[in-house]
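Give me structure tokens for this 212-residue protein.
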Amino acid sequence: MPRRALDNPIALAVLGLLLERPSHPHQMLTELRNRSDSHAAAITRGTLYNTVGALATAGWVASQGRQRAGNRPERTVYALTPTGRDELVRRLDSEIRNPEREFTQFLGAVSYLGALGPTGAVEALTERAGRLQQRTTADRKRLADALAAGVPRLRVIEAEYALCLAHAEQTWITSVIDDIRTGSLTWPTAPASAAPPAPPNRGESNRDADSA
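Here you go.
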């Protein structure tokens, strides 16, 4: 099993789920997709099964037997091993202590914001801000509902963090839009394109050749 399967961020999520209770991969996939929009977009069935296989080969998780529900096929249930728990704690401690520079798609796009021009940039940023507002409103309600239902805050602490990031992004986008509109964020003047050289006159070229 390739080492990169163990380095996949999904490995940490799987170890975290198994810290709560033993589970089979299908349950893990459903739970991860329910808990996180980013997981829902990124995790495929094949990726998850490969990750679980790598964790089992490493001795971080172990089979606890097979389980059947109704007419569905039997599924292998996995549990966290003591070695896996130690690895989970080590990774969590390291990732929480060390802020990494994460290169997101938005960061890559913002690097070339100038290509949109002032009007295009304002339009795109305004639409993004609106969509962020809609998403965070829904996320804030889900978080409030979960807390009101008695879910411990520590179980949904990542949702608080995601809302904090979204709020910071909205604030930044709004400030950039204002700076474009007021002119404090300026676009460089594109240099005039050099005119292409005129094609030579055939008659003159022929006369030059004759006089050579």
